[in-house]
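[Discussion] Sanity-checking designs against the backbone

I'm trying to build intuition for which residues belong where. Below is a structure token string of 371 positions. I'd appreciate it if someone posts a full sequence so I can compare it with mine line by line.
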């Protein structure tokens, strides 16, 4: 199982390594909302959350559907600016229908890899988005309603939120890490020029490689392969007006390898520049018990989705194309092994992977499900 970007015929100069202030802010906000994904950042997360003013913390909670479980495509610009203001200016140029559709693009949706109408104009898509938001909580549902009913006002509100984040904590972060990320991007660009794409991908992540393939007719193709517990396929020519692939370094991202590849959008991949050490695994008998629960490939895929946030049985059934009873049986097996937590929120029963338990299984498994 992997994600694939077809780059056949793409000139090397169209593969771009560059930092993005907006993408780094998105990665930082994700770490703040899901600290269990980032054990190496616990000190920073605790200190930053404690210093947030109540109003800003509340607004971040309202909008966290954009970055908590999966990163919204609007947070991964294909052509980043040098400052957050420049990235936000480019975001402002997107029309409302495209903006709202991109805002709710999340990789756990089976609709992600095929064209879907904007929820602003399609009642079915609007209902799906509202149902997904309602399962996340009342604030997230209210935020979603505001975006669907008043996209212009919500976009102004969202830009102000990001600007307040820059003033409160992100400005200091960007001044510190922006230099490091720019240096990494320059290094990868020079490596690409001197050694080629295959070696550059290997230096970027061990989960990336270049693959040459032939179809049944004998025609050859060149593909970038991302080793993830998910499936996706796109082309570097997805946006005919701007063909290429953009790589965004992040200091907050590990262990995620975030891949945005919606229809009609240039593929964007955000990769971490560092990999901290994780705690040692638990006792062998406990590891064995839990690994047996993970012996089914569907349960591995469920773990990937559940690592990104709480999901209902219905959501999981839709995402993976299986019945709700099948999901329930897999969930019961994982729960018996102590790998997931379950809680009720109103009429929804939500399941989520216990990342502390997963961390004790070992860094390879944790990195695999979070990648």
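Best answer:
Here's mine. Compare freely.
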């Amino acid at each position: 199982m992997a994600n694939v970007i077809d780059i056949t015929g793409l000139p090397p100069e169209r593969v771009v390594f560059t930092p993005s202030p907006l993408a780094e802010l998105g990665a930082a906000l994700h770490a703040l909302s899901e600290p269990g994904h980032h054990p190496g950042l616990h000190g920073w997360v605790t200190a930053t959350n404690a210093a947030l003013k109540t109003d800003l913390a509340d607004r971040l909670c309202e909008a966290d559907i954009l970055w908590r479980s999966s990163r919204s495509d609007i947070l991964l610009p294909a052509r980043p600016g040098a400052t957050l203001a420049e990235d936000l200016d480019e975001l402002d140029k997107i029309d409302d229908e495209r903006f709202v559709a991109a805002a709710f693009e999340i990789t756990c949706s089976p609709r992600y890899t095929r064209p879907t109408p904007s929820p602003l104009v399609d009642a079915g898509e609007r209902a799906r988005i509202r149902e997904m938001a309602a399962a996340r909580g009342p604030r997230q549902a209210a935020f979603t309603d505001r975006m669907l009913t008043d996209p212009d006002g919500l976009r102004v509100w969202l830009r102000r939120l990001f600007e307040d984040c820059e003033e409160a904590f992100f400005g200091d972060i960007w001044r510190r890490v922006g230099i490091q990320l720019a240096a990494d991007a320059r290094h990868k660009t020079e490596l690409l020029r001197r050694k080629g794409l295959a070696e550059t991908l290997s230096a970027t992540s061990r989960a990336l490689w270049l693959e040459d393939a032939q179809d049944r007719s004998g025609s050859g193709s060149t593909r970038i392969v991302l080793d993830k517990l998910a499936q996706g396929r796109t082309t570097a020519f997805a946006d005919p007006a701007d063909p290429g692939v953009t790589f965004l370094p992040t200091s907050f991202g590990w262990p995620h390898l975030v891949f945005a590849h919606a229809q009609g959008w240039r593929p964007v991949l955000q990769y971490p520049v560092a990999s901290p050490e994780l705690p040692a695994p638990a006792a062998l008998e406990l590891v064995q018990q839990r690994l047996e629960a993970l012996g089914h490939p569907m349960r591995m895929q469920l773990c990937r989705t559940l690592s990104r946030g709480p999901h209902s049985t219905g959501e999981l059934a839709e995402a993976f194309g299986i019945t709700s009873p099948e999901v329930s049986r897999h969930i019961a097996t994982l729960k018996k092994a102590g790998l997931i937590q379950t809680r009720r929120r109103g009429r929804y029963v939500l399941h989520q992977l216990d990342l502390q338990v997963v961390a004790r299984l070992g860094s390879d498994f944790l990195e695999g499900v979070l990648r």
